[in-house]
Amino acid sequence: EAVKENNLKRTGLVEGNASTGPPIIWLSYNVHGNESVSTEASMATAHALLTQKAPVEASWLEDAVVLIDPCLNPDGRDRYVNWYNQMQNAIYDPHPDASEHREPWPGGRPNHYLFDLNRDWAWATQKETQQRLKVYNSWMPHIHVDFHEQAVDNPYYFAPAAEPFHEVISDWQREFQNTIGQNHLKYFDKEGWLYFTKERFDLFYPSYGDTYPTYNGAIGMTYEQGGSGRAGLGVLTQEGDTLTLKDRIAHHYTTGISTVEISIENKERLVAEFQKFFQNPGKKATYQAYIVKGKDKPEQIKKLKSFLALHEIQYASADGTPSLNAYNYVSREKSKTQLAAEDIVVLAQQPKQQLIKVLFEPQAVLSDSITYDITGWGIPYMFGLEAYASESAVKVKNPQAVEFSSVEADNEAYGYVAPWESLNNAKYLSALLKAEVKVRYATEPFTLEGNEYKRGALIITRRNNENLGQRFDDKVVSLANAMEIPLKAVKSGYVDAGKDFGSGTVRYIKAPKVALLGGEQTSSLAFGEIWHYFEQQLDYPVTILRTDYFNSVDMSRYDVLILPNGYYSMF
């Protein structure tokens, strides 16, 4: 704990002056579940660190703290390993045509919900990422290695990375990638192992296991061993050699130990440059503040605050700056905006300033137009919020906590009305339907008891819910309070403007029976996105049907069939 707290002082996330301390090295394995050699190599690496002596006849762990995450994706790994153990021959068959080298849909690469966790470091949509970031940000390592596998016929890749490098990456970070690579190659050259550097794997898109740590001051790197899900215990390459699991372990083990070795050899400068990344980052940021408007989207603002807190990004409220000219994320030009108390202000000058620049920048600077992944992102776009980037400072105050006013049950109410504005409202509807509460919705805007409601507003009347008796009010209100839905109890179905509750424009919602098609010919990532949406965001049941038996399903049982992106033919 003392090492951890001392290191956080270097970043400014904890107040105080840091003393000298050991380098912190974080080794991450198996983020893609079928790149299974990673976890095997982590065991060999941990054993060596605990039992072997360094070249200077001292324990590695006397001079460094090494954190090992042996499996970032346990669900994906289990899916792959269980399948492989069922399919392998008693004596493994190295021919690529053998079934043990032909992993079926959806493969072990993604997690349970078929999400690629190596695209989730910044966006943190998955539970595995959310929990990892809490631990990562409590340590803020100086070195982070993400161990992967690539195609069977590709040998081994290690640092330095390819262009483009994001402009916030320091000269030291680039330099030390070369230093680490030079240390690796002396071991690979000695053994005659093939490798390549400076190709394919760039440092730009912020949500990888190499870029996210890099934007948090670390030397972030990807190491790629040939093999992946097709390799099994051994597989023939195009050159006729057999690539074995033992070979793959040896390569990842070697780069892991080499990383620890070279980091310890450069420990003083490694720690000093890490501190410099936060306290003296060099080039001044173009924008000094980012203003996110929150008046009409309280749920999105709440999600934004949670997102910023997870990444240890500080935010505040505007104070004494009534208006300013700033870059408008929607129009993509400067325009005037009025600041309000509910707006979120993220100041550039804070410990995570480099990460903030990357995540909030309206347009990233590319040194090379050919990249490994997407080149456009931005927090305002991600949350669908109006935002401005200001070149001048903005006066701020501590953010005001917005308290939700809970609703009281009214046993004499004619019914209740809830707005239809966001995913949270859809989740509320899902909960009502699962509780067998009958719900209607307005197809036209209306005004009632001084409140204006847009199209889609949910109307929940006592009429038609008589079977619930006294539980009606408790169910409707308790669910609304739990989800912070601004529910209103109304005395009448007669509206001030618009259509009354008994109008034909107010329609009954039948709880739909939803089916989702998956299996061969569907995109596993597209399928997983929809599956996750229903189960983890809407909390609404969905029946999964597979393409291999779809033709025998009685579809009259379902109201909705969702077809993910895919490559459909006859099935």
Structure description:
This protein has 571 residues and is an alpha/beta fold. The protein has 14 helices and 26 strands. The protein has helices spanning 2-11, 37-51, 74-87, 127-139, 171-191, 211-214, 245-265, 267-279, 298-310, 353-360, 379-383, 423-434, 471-482, 524-538; strands spanning 24-29, 65-69, 143-150, 156-157, 162-165, 202-203, 219-226, 234-236, 242-244, 289-292, 317-318, 323-328, 334-338, 344-347, 387-390, 396-397, 415-418, 439-442, 446-448, 451-453, 458-461, 488-490, 506-509, 514-518, 543-546, 560-562. The protein has a 5-stranded mixed beta sheet. The chain has a 5-stranded antiparallel beta sheet with strand order 13-12-15-10-14, covered by helices on one side. Strands 22-17-21-18-23 form a 5-stranded antiparallel beta sheet, with helices on one face. The longest helix has 21 residues, at 171-191. The radius of gyration is 28 Å and the shape is globular.
Which value, in Å, is the CA radius of gyration?
28 Å
Outline: globular
Helix content: 25-40%
> If you average the pLDDT, what whole number results?
94
Number of helices: 14
Q: Tell me the number of strands.
A: 26
- First-residue to last-residue Cα separation: 57 Å
Q: What structural keywords apply?
A:
571 residues, single chain, 31% helix, alpha/beta, 5-stranded antiparallel sheet, globular
Q: What is the fold's blueprint, element by element?
A:
Elements: H1 2-11, E1 24-29, H2 37-51, E2 65-69, H3 74-87, H4 127-139, E3 143-150, E4 156-157, E5 162-165, H5 171-191, E6 202-203, H6 211-214, E7 219-226, E8 234-236, E9 242-244, H7 245-265, H8 267-279, E10 289-292, H9 298-310, E11 317-318, E12 323-328, E13 334-338, E14 344-347, H10 353-360, H11 379-383, E15 387-390, E16 396-397, E17 415-418, H12 423-434, E18 439-442, E19 446-448, E20 451-453, E21 458-461, H13 471-482, E22 488-490, E23 506-509, E24 514-518, H14 524-538, E25 543-546, E26 560-562
Parallel strand pairs: 1-2, 1-3, 3-7, 5-6, 24-25, 24-26
Antiparallel strand pairs: 4-7, 8-9, 10-14, 10-15, 11-16, 12-13, 12-15, 17-21, 17-22, 18-21, 18-23, 19-20
